[in-house]
Specification:
462 residues; alpha/beta; Rossmann fold; 6-stranded mixed sheet; 14 helices; 18 strands
Length: 462
C-alpha cells in the first residue's frame, strides 16, 4: 500500500520567515487558509524584513496566476518556481481556501482567533480528504501543541535549517596529540617570510578546511593554508601570548583567543566568524584588531560596527538624535570595550579625551535597517550579535562588502532574541557552515570566559 500524498497547510509565520517556503515541499500539495492570506495582507506594509518577505510571497503567487492565466482558483495553481530560483520544486499544487470551515470542537469556540480558524480549516480538510495526510506546518510551538490536542498532525518548518543539530556545526579547531608526527612521517617543513610551514599527506583523513585552526600536542598551533587532494599545508601562527607582541595592547589569554587574533589580523582572510559564550572576548578581539589595522597599519579606512536591533529591522526613528545616537542603546558592548582599549599611557584625562575624539572619527556605528544599497570600500566591518540575524539578512549584509573590506561576525547562538530563529536556523550558523570551505574565510569557537572569575562561574553554574 502506497504512502498517502500530503497536503501541507502553511502557517503565516512560515511565509514571513521564508517566502520561498511554498516551493519547498517537493511533490506534495500546499494549502493557504484564508486567515493566512488575511494576516499576510495586514503585514505587507513597512520596511521591515517581515514586510518584504510578505510582499515577496504575494509576488510569487501573482506571477504563478499570470503564467497560468488563472482567474478562478478552485482547482489551485501548479507550483512553478519563479525565474532565477532553483529550489527543486516538485509536481505539487498550491490550493486556497474557498469555503469557510465550521468550528469542529468546543475547544475552538471563539473563531476570532487566527490560530483557531487555521485549526478549524485543518479539521475540515481532514474530513474532506480522508485519502490525504493533512499536515499543519508552523513555527509557533503553541499552535503545534493545540493541533496535537485536536489530533491534527503538525510539524515545524525544517527547510530553513543549516544543519540538523548544533553539535554538528563546524568548530574551526582540530586537536591532535604528540603522536601526530609519528602518524605523518613524510612531513616536509620550510621557512617562508619568517614563518614555518609544514606539508604532509592527508591519507584517509577528512574534514580538513582552509584556515582551520590546528593544535598539535601542548605547544604547536597552526592554520591550514591549503587543502589538496593528497596533502595539507600548515603554517605556524603568530604568538600573541607574550606581552612584547600584542594587538592594540591586547594579548591572547588562551589558545582560542590566539587563533582568533591570527584570523582577524590575516589580510588574506576576508571573512571571520567568532562564536562563544558571554565573556570570551569576541567583541574586544574584533575591535582591537580593527583598530590596529585601521589606525596603525592603515589597511582599512575606518571601522563600521552594526548589530541587530531586536525587534530586528523595525524603525528606530522614535529615538532622538542622529543614526549613531539612535543606535547607542544597543551599542553598550562597543562602548565598554572602547573604554578598555582607550587607556592612554600618558596625558591623563586630556590624553583620554584626545584618544576618544580620534577614535570617534574612525569607528562608525551604523543601523542594520539602512544597509540595502550600500557598498563598503576598504572597511573593517563588525557585525555584532549576529545570532539574531536571519540567513537572508546575513546575505544582504555580506554582499555589501566591496574591494579591500573585511567582515567579522560575532555572536552566541545560545542567546537568540529574534522570534522564530533557533540555533540551527540563525544566520550566524548558516555563515559558519557555508563558508568553511572557502579559502578566504576563517572560524573559531571561543570557549573560556576571561571577563572575571565571577562571570566565568556564573556562565557555568547558572
Amino acid at each position: 500500500m502506497g504512502l498517502k500524498k500530503r497536503l501541507y497547510i502553511i502557517d503565516t509565520n512560515v511565509l514571513m520567515h521564508d517566502p520561498t517556503a511554498i516551493f519547498r515541499f517537493e511533490e506534495h500539495d500546499v494549502f493557504l487558509p484564508m486567515m493566512v492570506l488575511e494576516e499576510l495582507d495586514a503585514a505587507k506594509k513597512g520596511l521591515s524584513e517581515v514586510a518584504r518577505n510578505v510582499r515577496q510571497v504575494s509576488r510569487f503567487v501573482g506571477e504563478m496566476m499570470q503564467r497560468q492565466h488563472a482567474t478562478r482558483l478552485d482547482e489551485g495553481l501548479e507550483l512553478q518556481e519563479p525565474d532565477g530560483l532553483d529550489l527543486s520544486a516538485g509536481t505539487g499544487r498550491l490550493y486556497f481556501q474557498t469555503t469557510m470551515p465550521d468550528t469542529h470542537s468546543s475547544l475552538l469556540r471563539d473563531g476570532s482567533f487566527a490560530d483557531n480558524e487555521i485549526l478549524s480549516t485543518a479539521l475540515s480538510l481532514q474530513d474532506a480528504y480522508p485519502d490525504k495526510s493533512i499536515v499543519l506546518v508552523s513555527k509557533d510551538i503553541n499552535l503545534r501543541i493545540k493541533a496535537a490536542i485536536l489530533g491534527v498532525q503538525a510539524e515545524d518548518y525544517y527547510n530553513d535549517r543549516a544543519l540538523d543539530d548544533l553539535s554538528l556545526l563546524y568548530r574551526g579547531l582540530r586537536q591532535h596529540g604528540e603522536d601526530f608526527w609519528d602518524d605523518h612521517p613524510q612531513i616536509e617543513s620550510w621557512s617562508e617570510n619568517g614563518r614555518t610551514h609544514y606539508r604532509f599527506g592527508r591519507g584517509r583523513e577528512n574534514n580538513w578546511y582552509p584556515n582551520q585552526c590546528v593544535a598539535i600536542g601542548n605547544g604547536i598551533e597552526a592554520l591550514v593554508k591549503s587543502v589538496g587532494d593528497d596533502s595539507v599545508m600548515l603554517r605556524l601562527v603568530d604568538d600573541y601570548y607574550d606581552g612584547r607582541k600584542n594587538v592594540w595592547g591586547i594579548n591572547a589569554r588562551n589558545r582560542e583567543q590566539n587563533f582568533a587574533l591570527n584570523l582577524l589580523m590575516d589580510p588574506e582572510i576576508d571573512f571571520v566568524t567568532l562564536m562563544g559564550t558571554a565573556g570570551t572576548g569576541k567583541t574586544l578581539l574584533a575591535l582591537a584588531t580593527g583598530l590596529a589595522q585601521t589606525m596603525d597599519e592603515k589597511r582599512y579606512s575606518e571601522i563600521v560596527v552594526t548589530r541587530a536591533t531586536v525587534s530586528i529591522g523595525e524603525d528606530i526613528g522614535y529615538l532622538p538624535g542622529t543614526e549613531e545616537e539612535k543606535m547607542t542603546p544597543w551599542m553598550g558592548a562597543l562602548t565598554d570595550n572602547l573604554e578598555v582599549l582607550t587607556q592612554p599611557q600618558e596625558g591623563g584625562e586630556w590624553g583620554r579625551a584626545a584618544t576618544n575624539d580620534l577614535l570617534a572619527s574612525r569607528v562608525k556605528v551604523r543601523a542594520m535597517n539602512f544597509m540595502r544599497g550600500r557598498t563598503f570600500l576598504n572597511r573593517f566591518v563588525i557585525i555584532d550579535e549576529a545570532q539574531n540575524i536571519t540567513p537572508k539578512q546575513m546575505k544582504a549584509l555580506l554582499t555589501r562588502a566591496g574591494p579591500g573590506t573585511k567582515m567579522v561576525c560575532i555572536g552566541n547562538v545560545e542567546q537568540i532574541d529574534t522570534p522564530y530563529l533557533t540555533e540551527t536556523t540563525s544566520g550566524l550558523t548558516f555563515a559558519v557552515d557555508r563558508f568553511k570551505d572557502w579559502d578566504h574565510a576563517g572560524h573559531i569557537t571561543l570557549k573560556r570566559g576571561e571577563r572575571s572569575r565571577l562571570a566565568h562561574y556564573a556562565s557555568d553554574a547558572l
